């Protein structure tokens, strides 16, 4: 949080009844996460809303798609990559944001690599998938057509945009960026990448070795988070939306204690700005049922996605520079062997 007299003189935000719900939601959602990876049988919660509807984890990097990106796309075994390869793989995965699409490309191409990229071949594979009735984009958020490269079908415009971003030397510019905001600003210069997508891609690229910035450095709340912020805070006072996300991030231990909650962090890693921002998105949905009288910006009253249990979750794995993976192995009583880490690609080899 910003410090100094100017900050102190700002009027403090005024909270609503949803403020305490924010902390209770974060704590219980994290408990569900640990119960699942510990192999506990379902149901994993007595909260009827959490048990009935789909919500993301308290930590963004712990979500299924983020875990796949980290383990299988960025730090895949057997790959020897340079910065362009890392950038290409992250962008290609994130534009579609769907595991099945990545696995389709891997199956058809054997290896997804920038050095062997062929627009014609990638287009052929994805067009055939669409024509056969397969969905190639995630439903997590809408990916608009890149009008600058419109070519009949959305995926073609995205392939062209990815190709341009790599050819422009973006990877090299990212490696010399001084702060996370610089990464966001580089992404923001490209067509179709508005504030929301540019920020999401900034976080995803920061999981890789291209950049190594603290997740406590920069945040830009998206539409869902802004809806949640309006429900949690009756009056933002002198705080911007980004300030409010920092406000809860800075106060997390104090607020969990005040609510009588024992929050289990991610093996010692506090909730980061991106996590607190995502929690505002999820609490916005949760409050539609728990606090139907509290309206956000959108006025939505229902939660669309029902929860379908897929059983226990595998052991998590996080970016090596977070220094959590050894802690996880010890906590789970697994071998302290470095085999898993040693099998990962050598960056910039």
Architecture blueprint of SSEs:
Elements: H1 5-8, E1 14-15, H2 18-37, H3 48-52, H4 64-74, E2 80-81, H5 83-96, H6 99-109, H7 119-131, H8 154-167, H9 170-175, H10 180-188, H11 195-206, H12 223-232, E3 233-235, H13 241-258, H14 273-290, H15 325-331, H16 339-342, E4 346-347
Based on the model shown, name its key terms.
single chain; 349 residues; mainly alpha; two-stranded antiparallel sheet; two-stranded parallel sheet; 16 helices; 4 strands; 50% helix; disordered C terminus
Structure description:
This protein is mainly α. The protein has one domain (20-349). 50% of the residues lie in helices and 3% in strands. It has helices at residues 5-8, 18-37, 48-52, 64-74, 83-96, 99-109, 119-131, 154-167, 170-175, 180-188, 195-206, 223-232, 241-258, 273-290, 325-331, 339-342; strands at residues 14-15, 80-81, 233-235, 346-347. The strands form 2 sheets. It has a two-stranded antiparallel sheet.
| Oligomerization status of the protein chains | single chain
Domains, number: 1
Low-confidence stretches at least 5 residues in length (pLDDT < 50)? Answer: 1-5, 336-349
How do the helices and strands follow one another from N- to C-terminus? Answer: HEHHHEHHHHHHHHEHHHHE
The main pleated sheet reads as: 2 strands, antiparallel
- Order of strands, widest sheet: 1-3
SS-derived structural category: mainly alpha
Portion of residues within helices: 40-55%
Mean pLDDT: 91
- Whole-angstrom Rg: 21 Å
N- and C-termini, Cα separation: 38 Å
Q: How many distinct beta strands? A: 4
CA-based shape: globular
Number of continuous helical runs: 16
Strand proportion: under 5%
